[in-house]
Amino acid sequence: MKKIAIIGTGQVGQSTAQQLARENFCSDIVLIGRSADYAKGIALDIQHALPLFESKSIIFGSGDYQSMHNADIVVITAGVSRKPGMSRLDLLAQNKTILTEIIDNILRYAPEAYLIIVTNPVDILTYYAWKLTGWPRSRVLGLSCILDSARMASLIGSKTGFAVKEISALVIGGHGDSMVPLPRFSRINGIPIDVFLDTDQIQQLVQQTRKAGGEIVSYKGVSGCIAAAASVVTMLDAIVNDRNHILPCVAVLKGEYGYQGIALGTPTVLGGSGVTKIIELPLNQEELDQLRFSADEIAEHISNME
């Protein structure tokens, strides 16, 4: 049982705290926000549900970074979220400033923690957080492709009519319009999806996957939160319970796929020691070209930021 701090009381932070409490695999959940009263109110609301969840977790809210003292894992959801017509990259300048303040306090109060970045643009900010902390890359990772892969699996289920629990999908690359959905690595109960979908349907699926997050923004006016939170909790479960799951996360690359000095969505082995391995897929030329386009875009923004 671990202490997990969630920084940010927006929709993703709230939903993550609620889903994490329900899963009942950590002892303490700390929800930290700009407004102490607002954070306390959210925490109290979730606390009242714990008997119904049959959860032994304890959750409390705070406006003080010191509340994360000795946290085992810190999840950063704080930041400006995109509005209709915005891309994730439009958030970089503001969220970089916010992240800088947060990292400074993590180094002060939770210097041994593992760090999960959710704030967008997540791939660029994951690399920035890794540079700021100076920690091993195994301890700093970001959310993106678990969420994108789940969205792709949901779309496959909608197109084929098969149960989504039998569907595995895979997306790598950046968390944006240049993400790389991989139909060739996607299966329905072990069967390649091209057995059920023709070329045009698969291409439509790829485009819908890339636009899935933006579609939510166009309807809600803000980013999605429930699937994002479920993805974060999946990562937390893998670390806390030492699952050694293969999960597509944003990880810092040191030569994988021919890249250094960037963080990119790629299949990782995630367990009790954080990222224990980055898996290099046997991509074909078309897939490699798409990944390079995505990675080069991220590398350019990291270079400009530095």
List the helices and strands and how they pair.
Blueprint: E1 3-7, H1 11-23, E2 28-32, H2 36-53, E3 58-62, E4 73-76, H3 92-109, E5 114-117, H4 122-133, E6 140-142, H5 145-160, E7 167-168, E8 171-172, E9 180-181, E10 187-188, E11 191-192, H6 199-220, H7 226-240, E12 245-254, E13 260-271, E14 274-278, H8 285-305
Structure description:
The strands form four sheets. Strands 3-2-1-4-5-6 form a six-stranded parallel beta sheet, sandwiched between helices. A three-stranded antiparallel beta sheet has the order 7-10-11, with helices on one face. It has a three-stranded antiparallel beta sheet with strand order 12-13-14. The chain has helices at residues 11-23, 36-53, 92-109, 122-133, 145-160, 199-220, 226-240, 285-305; strands spanning 3-7, 28-32, 58-62, 73-76, 114-117, 140-142, 167-168, 171-172, 180-181, 187-188, 191-192, 245-254, 260-271, 274-278. Helices cover 44% and strands 21% of the residues. The protein is of the alpha/beta class.
Please identify the structural class as seen in this structure: alpha/beta
What's the number of extended β-strand segments?
Answer: 14
Mean pLDDT: 94
Shape label: globular
How many H/I helices?
8
- The radius of gyration computed from the alpha-carbon positions, rounded to a whole number of angstroms, is 19 Å
Note the main sheet. 6 strands, parallel
Tell me the CATH superfamily of the domain at 3-142.
Answer: NAD(P)-binding Rossmann-like Domain
Regions with little confidence, pLDDT below 50 for 5+ residues: none
Quickly name the level 1 CATH class of the domain at 3-142.
Answer: Alpha Beta
Distance separating the two termini: 38 Å
